[in-house]
Amino acid sequence: IAEMKRVPYHIQRDVLDELGVDQVAEKSDFKISAKEKFREAVRCTGPRFKSCFLSFVPLLTWLPRYPFRENAIGDLISGISVGIMHLPQGMAYALLAAVPPVFGLYSSFYPILIYFIFGTSKHISVGTYAVMSVMIGSVTERLAPDSDFMIPGNDTNSTSLDIVSRDAERVKIAATVTFLSGIFQLLLGLVRFGFVVTYLSEPLVRAYTTAAAIHVIVSQLKYSFGINPQRYSGPLSLIYTIIEDCALLGQTNIGTLVVSIVTIIGLVAAKELSALAARKIPIPIPVELITIIIATVVSWQMDLKTEYVQPTTILQAPVAPAVSLLGSMVGDAFALAVVGYGIAISLGRIFALKYAYKVDSNQELIALGLSNSIGGLFNCFAISCSMSRSMVQVSTGGKSQVAGAISALVILVILLKIGELFEELPKAVLAAIIYVNLQGMMKQFGDIRSLWRTNKVDMVVWVMTLILTVLFNPDMGLAASIAFSILTVVFRTQLPKYSILGQVPGTDIYKPVEDYNQVKEIPGIMIFHSSATLYFANAEMYIDALYEKTGVDVAKLLSHKKKLEAKRLRKEKKAAKKAKKEAKKRAKEAVKAAEDVGAVEVGPDPDTDTTLPQAIILDLSPVNFLDTVGVKTLRNIYKDYGEAGVQVYFCGCQRGVVESMEKGDFFNEKVTKSILFSSVHDAVLYCQQGNSEEVIQGTHL
Amino acid sequence: IAEMKRVPYHIQRDVLDELGVDQVAEKSDFKISAKEKFREAVRCTGPRFKSCFLSFVPLLTWLPRYPFRENAIGDLISGISVGIMHLPQGMAYALLAAVPPVFGLYSSFYPILIYFIFGTSKHISVGTYAVMSVMIGSVTERLAPDSDFMIPGNDTNSTSLDIVSRDAERVKIAATVTFLSGIFQLLLGLVRFGFVVTYLSEPLVRAYTTAAAIHVIVSQLKYSFGINPQRYSGPLSLIYTIIEDCALLGQTNIGTLVVSIVTIIGLVAAKELSALAARKIPIPIPVELITIIIATVVSWQMDLKTEYVQPTTILQAPVAPAVSLLGSMVGDAFALAVVGYGIAISLGRIFALKYAYKVDSNQELIALGLSNSIGGLFNCFAISCSMSRSMVQVSTGGKSQVAGAISALVILVILLKIGELFEELPKAVLAAIIYVNLQGMMKQFGDIRSLWRTNKVDMVVWVMTLILTVLFNPDMGLAASIAFSILTVVFRTQLPKYSILGQVPGTDIYKPVEDYNQVKEIPGIMIFHSSATLYFANAEMYIDALYEKTGVDVAKLLSHKKKLEAKRLRKEKKAAKKAKKEAKKRAKEAVKAAEDVGAVEVGPDPDTDTTLPQAIILDLSPVNFLDTVGVKTLRNIYKDYGEAGVQVYFCGCQRGVVESMEKGDFFNEKVTKSILFSSVHDAVLYCQQGNSEEVIQGTHL
Predict the structure, then answer these.
(1) Residue numbers in A near B33 (CB within 8 A)
(2) Which ranges carry the STAS domain (chains A, B) (predicted)?
(3) Contact by Cβ (8 Å): A374, A110
């Protein structure tokens, strides 16, 4: 350790050159960039086609190697359990999407089979998802509102709703927006843009799903109370809907309300019981299915009025998406694509981490994209994956995508055999199922408390995401929330902590002097440190803080500069006069004058000598990048202090920072790279060597 | 130097404690925060009231000390020169604001007098400004379009424009939006929010003014060609206006076009000549004034048709702003407030730096706010400061705000004595004056080339600002541009450069191994460095890059973990069996089993021993802050590698980063702060001490 050399940046470069150290090509092999990802995607042609095709259809890779004896029974039981869950969830979420329940069953069938072929996650249960369904619902209700389907009633004054054509239109809209979102996912997957999901930070996703759950609940209140409020869309529609609901509370259908309350209480109680019984029974009790069956029977007995219209055929042929509608739903489809992918990949990653395999984010995008785009052709609505179903799939022994395929078969049997039995199911029961399923998302409100304790900025992101998503709708709210969470990066670096560093006695470690009493500043040398990158949003503050900490007033510094200037001019005049008078001694005098000028410019001024340090070292190690404002700021600092006779050194610059300075013409003949140092200590030693012996002794005794 | 100790973070803390080093209070005195700025503002009451009042009215401070003999003549000459410039600019920019020219003269009078009292910059020439005027114009033309003022003509089919009432309405609108923008500036100044201007980075301001100049030029084309296109407002209005102008080119008034071309050529030629003559004549030739006088005379002689309506009184009493209009112009007024302040403060700072005095950004906000709000009451439109006039003010010897006051007096004389003479001035001439004045802003297109060379991201900001401001209007464009420039901070840190650091031989300096051939990795220790802050947008990439560089597959790591898990379970079973069999030796065996478990968990696995490093050091010095995603990422890295028997150390953490880790529950009984080190070298030495003697010798021989 003792022999270690402290070398400034330039010397070190020279040393490296002498040692035959060449700088390797500009671009590192390791650099992971979007460009390379794209190249990798493009490379997927030619000789590597076969392996590429296999990675595009993961089924071909894993199915031949399927360990039948080990996994088959687990997958079968798990598949049936999940299939049984799909039934009530699919029907209930169809209500959210504002389409007839049977389309929820379609959505629990086609997309799952496609994901089985293309998906890479073994444990997530793709299918209907509350948040996606409510997003679809906002599109269908906006583009096909009830008011468009009023037909003259029996007597001339009244009109009645044409439910059949309204539902047909809504199914078309839901299928089209689903198709489009699938295409978006497919495109994002093909250009390997899976990383877009990184903008969905965890606090954002959790707040967003909570806000979406609030939207879901508000949209279902009408079914629980049996009222018929006006539909609203656009920003603040949630507020308007609540106001409308409250205004209509007087018209509550008591029967419906009783059914709702009884169902909710029953469901909660049954869930608690099944949680208690979970230790003894390995397979969860299909509480929702039982509820639906009971409700259907009761409803059939009591002849409760419902609005259901069963489509004539159970399985329909694929239909082309409504091209004319595409333009009006681009934004919604993109939001669906991003949210659906975001939810699926984050759940997929959790299970992949737990069970030690890898989920390919781009392949997931392709799998979901195909599920949605093909599903859209079969009148499905957009799917993602559901936390509750995935938990059941795993806990009942599901070990691969086969469980998903079996659950799809369960849905197929139900569709073909007993689907029409559920025709009589009251919407209040489905709404109750939805509420109870959203428990988990409501529990996420606890995040506020834990984030308050751990990270306040992230708490603000959480709260703002909730507010923005509740006030605007899920699509606009997502965009606004992402924009806000990106803004926080600026907030976090805009008000950095500035500090003066001092030496920890006897070491080469430099720490902020205000943090430790014994850390001492080095006489004559000021080491300035900012906790954040220097860029346009905090450049001015950086200079202000530096001036304040160095105890220098800009005005003072500059008046000093002016004085020097005036002095210089006087000297020059004097020199010129002398030169005129003594023509023969001209050459000699001019040299002297020039020397005087040099001395005045470089030497510290006697007026400011007591306050100004001899050297300032800027610790730039936290600087991530330099923009033009940053380069200009450093240049001004160097120039201003230089004119006042204070030398400025920079240390800890990353290579990218040095490159930005080079490109920004920071360096020239006068300002060379000799002012750059690898570490604070190097710079300090260099300063001390340059100064008188006394200073060095002063600090090192 | 030789005795310097390398100590890990925790040891160092202990040492500091022993030395009696207490951590100083949490909040540093030096910390500059918005909170403190606010406090400072609040503190401005009570005993300090007098000095506070003086700082609120800078005139009271500097006027009594005005060095009459030194400054008076310079200020007088400069004031007259600037006043002469105010006249044509005020009239021309009134055209941009879509109000009669005399209101441009008002705007060159009242606000300047008020700034004289409250302003702190000695050299800027406040008054009408092209960009502000065109922003006002977009408001007036949106809220009072020509179509609202059509009155039935003489014959029943035709309608004619009621110019008098249209202009009266437009003046009212312009005055109201000016008043409101002044109130915004005043409020921002009172709460000391002068720092908002930091979001206006230099590339953004330059591109924005260029884009505004394009808006100005397009809005004036109709006067140069003598055509009457339809007015457009809102996004893309510039494009529509150009299309409309092109369609109407056939109707060009040849006389007007000739006047335009002659004026432009004349102005450019005269400016070139005056630039050439500048060395001989100290005062610039008032080219524009001469042009206006000539044009007025010619127009009066040739009886060119104009639309001017002179208000009945020259100086009007103040009028209350139109409160009913306030709601519809909040956004425009805010944009005006920000832009006006941004331009004024940036010019003010340039001169302050040059002439060594200080411009108080909050006092500037107050001064501009009062100028605009009081000006608005006197039917002025919003002012800022003009580069060209300021340059003239300085070059003709202006030394203080007195020059501004004199220029206002010049305008007053013109208003009272000869204002009505300019009644006949054709708009084509004013348009020509505007074009020629915008030369400088058009030259800013050269920025693209220089930014391309120096900083590509800033070039993208420039181009995007131009496009956004041209496509949307200046108000929306400003918001979009600021949002985009903030986004670039994320772009810049989202794709960091990841590298493995190695030791520069014989020193304690660590550099990326891919940059230098001779920099060698330390056997068994991997030092990982990211060029950017670790946060939600790049957390996943960080982990991926780390896994890639360490040559570890996540799956491999996790399957290894599972193996360990299985092993542990088997051992536990074995131990349990043994315990059952040999009941009397139970206590002893249990201890052994526990020891075995511990050994298996901690020790490196023989399978992966060859590929995995023994320790990983993460260099976190470029990390500015840690969000919850960042803390979680570090925790996962520590846990995953820890389970595979690889110890992870962090070094170079800033205090804020350590605090975020503490709050985020990163540390517990098992994970203590002993994994934190001050520098890479400290961590390396600690690792080597912990390992076998051979390794240390290997690296240090």
Answers:
(1) 495
(2) 515-687
(3) yes
Inter-chain residue contact B490 with A486, CB threshold 8 Å: yes
Is there a contact between A509 and B655 if contact means CB atoms under 8 Å apart?
no
Q: Is B628 in Cβ contact with A203 (below 8 Å)?
A: yes
Name the nearest CA neighbour of B680 among A679, A536, A149, A349: A679
Query: Is the Cβ pair A545, B30 closer than 8 Å?
Result: yes
pLDDT above 90 (res A114): yes
Average pLDDT over residues B467-484: 86
- CB burial class (10 A; 0-12, 13-18, 19+) of residue A280? exposed
Q: What is the DSSP letter of B419?
A: G
* A534 contacts in chain B (CB < 8 Å): none
Q: Over the stretch A551-605, which tens digit does the pLDDT of each residue have?
A: 766 556 666 666 667 777 777 777 777 666 666 565 555 555 544 444 444 444 4
More confident residue, B53 or A113: A113
- Reduced to 3 states (helix: H, G, I; strand: E, B; else coil), residue B23 is strand
Burial of A395 (0-12, 13-18, 19+ CB in 10 A): middle
What is the amino acid identity at position B344? A
Query: Could A458 and B627 be called an inter-chain contact, meaning their C-beta atoms sit closer than 8 Å?
Result: yes
Task: Say if the Cβ atoms of B621 and A652 lie within 8 Å.
Answer: yes
Average model confidence (pLDDT) across chain A: 79
**What is chain B's mean pLDDT, rounded?**
79
Q: How far is CA B641 from the centre of its chain?
A: 42
Residue type present at position B33: S
The closest CB to that of A458, out of B497, B562, B628, belongs to B628
Nearest CA in chain B to A506: B4
The interface predicted TM-score (ipTM) is 0.74
Residue B283 tokens read as 């005062």
Question: What are B649's strand-pairing partners?
Answer: B617
Chain A positions touching B30 (Cβ under 8 A) are 498-500, 514, 545, 548-549
Residue type, A143: L
Residue at A452: amino acid letter? W
d(CA A95, CA A105): 12
Query: Is there a contact between B516 and A1 if contact means CB atoms under 8 Å apart?
Result: no
Identity of the residue numbered B166: R
Tokens of B586: 């139970």
Please report the pLDDT score of residue B371 as a whole number: 95
CA distance B89 to chain A (A): 32
Token pair in block for residue B604: 């490196």
Say what the pLDDT of residue A579 is: 65
pLDDT, one tens digit per residue, over B584-596 is 565 555 555 544 4
Collect all residues of chain A within an 8 Å Cβ-Cβ radius of residue B563.
Answer: none
Test the B interface: residue of A198, A202, A360, A520 with most B CBs within 10 Å: A198
> What pLDDT score does A691 carry?
54
Q: Cα–Cα distance between A457 and A488 in angstroms, integer?
A: 7
- Bridge partners, A150 (sequence order): A161
Name the one residue in this structure whose structure tokens are 């959505």: A107
State how far residue B423 is from chain A, nearest Cα, in angstroms.
46
Q: Is the pLDDT of residue B358 over 50?
A: yes
Determine, for residues B628 and A453 on separate chains, whether the beta-carbon distance falls below 8 Å.
Answer: no
CB contacts < 8 Å between A and B, how many?
Answer: 303
Q: Which residue has the tokens 């000739």?
A: B258
Answer whether A506 sits within 8 Å of B4, measured CB to CB: yes
Supply the pTM of this predicted model: 0.73
A237-294 confidence digits (pLDDT tens): 888 889 988 988 888 888 888 888 988 898 888 888 877 877 777 667 777 778 878 8
Q: What are the E-state strand segments in B508-639?
A: 510-512, 525-530, 615-619
- Give me the residue from B201, B488, B628 closest to A202, CB to CB: B628
Residue A8 backbone phi and psi in degrees, to 5: -70, 165
DSSP line for B213-266: HHHHHHHHHHHHHT--PPP--STTHHHHHHHHHHHTGGG--HHHHHHHHHHHHH
